Amino acid sequence: MSVLTVEARSLIRAREIEAALEAFDRDLLADDGHYVVHVSVPGGDRGLVAVLNALERYARERGDGATRLKLELDGETYLLEAVTERPA
User: Is 5 helix (H, G, I), strand (E, B) or coil?
Assistant: First the structure.
């Protein structure tokens, strides 16, 4: 089982990410102002898509314009960016 790591800028953001991933096995780690959420990716490609969908939903629901999440999986780094339109 792979582990996906999501970096967060603050403890509040890390807790929000952790809550968005409540359907998965995850751990929030804090170390001297650096916050990450590790999530175990279940069931291969389908499990990875489910985790990424949950993260995209979280990013879009924040509703503050653009949300970027730095992800790491299998030694590779990725950036998930969700842009939401602000109400007029």
Answer: strand
pTM of the full structure: 0.86
Closest of 5, 8, 21, 87 to residue 56, by C-alpha: 21
How many angstroms separate the Cα of 69 from the Cα of each of 11, 29, 82, 87?
Answer: 14, 16, 9, 22
Q: What is the dihedral of CA 53, 15, 6, 41, to 10 degrees?
A: -50
Task: Please count the residues of the chain.
Answer: 88
Spatial CA neighbour of 53 closest among 78, 9, 12, 21 = 21
| pLDDT tens column, 14-71 | 999 999 999 999 999 999 889 999 999 998 899 999 999 999 999 888 766 667 899 9
The CATH classification number of 2-83 equals 3.30.70.120
Q: Which residue has the tokens 């409540």?
A: 22
